């Protein structure tokens, strides 16, 4: 083939491929619930990569059954077949091997692909290409598509793109797991801090019920002001001094509590990071772990 023509053909494949990956990444970032993005992903693959039929099989964590999550281009009868619409026994075989696979000969058999072996599979024999999606080391979903490219392109090119799509989805799964772990840690820290405040409240003399933060501060300030002398001839700075001390103590203690991780500190205080940075600068706090 003429090198110039071959180059144009390769460019013609690369542009829609890059556009697809970009739009899929955007779709994955559009919702915290990944299942809500599956339909968008199938639409993108159909629009840019020529996929005519595709779908996600999703494991129902409660029932342990495989169900159709989202589908694109499937006929009503195929939809009724639920987990068997890729082909008979495909799910079990993919689960056993944990590899991408081609459903061949109308779903009667399956051809496994490990990403290394040379592919001699004829495109006309493959009805679906499937790839597993893992969550915490276990397969939680299977993405299946009919094809992306046409002859004379090798089926390996379809598998490569399918693998790239699944890699993006796995990254999104891992990111959400990390966010969930961080949120759990913050909730535990908040709960621990509340318990500390309750313990502090119980140490206040003659108090038998739970003490709120407001009551603790009122008690401390009232006793401090009661011990101060009032000179009507002076222009005191008590208001400014008290506010500054309380603010500085609050921000410094919160930073120490969260080991000077500003994102955690901001969430702990219920403010945004810009406000936190401004206050650190105004109050002269060294925002670095010593």
Gyration radius, in Å: 30 Å
Looking at CATH, the homologous superfamily of the largest domain is GAF domain
CATH topological fold name of the largest domain? Beta-Lactamase
- Indicate the overall shape: elongated
Listing every helix as H and every strand as E from the N terminus to the C terminus, the arrangement reads: HHEEHHEEEEHHHHH
User: What structural class is derived from the secondary structure elements?
Assistant: alpha+beta
Please supply descriptive tags for the structure shown above:
290 residues, alpha+beta, Beta-Lactamase, Arc Repressor Mutant, subunit A, 2 domains, six-stranded antiparallel beta sheet, 6 strands
Polypeptide structure, described:
It is a single chain. This protein has 290 residues and is α+β, with helices and mostly antiparallel strands. It has two domains: 3-179, 2-Layer Sandwich (Beta-Lactamase); 229-290, Homeodomain-like (Arc Repressor Mutant, subunit A), CATH 1.10.10.60. It contains nine helices and six strands; from the N terminus they run ααββααββββααααα. It has a six-stranded antiparallel beta sheet, with helices on both faces. Helix 1 runs antiparallel to helix 2 (35-49) and helix 1 runs parallel beside helix 5 (155-202). The protein is elongated and about 95 Å long.
List the helices and strands and how they pair.
Blueprint lengths: L2 H26 L6 H15 L4 E6 L6 E7 L3 H5 L9 H8 L2 E5 L4 E5 L12 E10 L2 E8 L9 H48 L10 H14 L11 H20 L4 H8 L3 H10 L8
Antiparallel strand pairs: 1-2, 1-6, 3-4, 3-5, 5-6
Helix pairs in contact: 1-2, 1-5, 7-8, 8-9
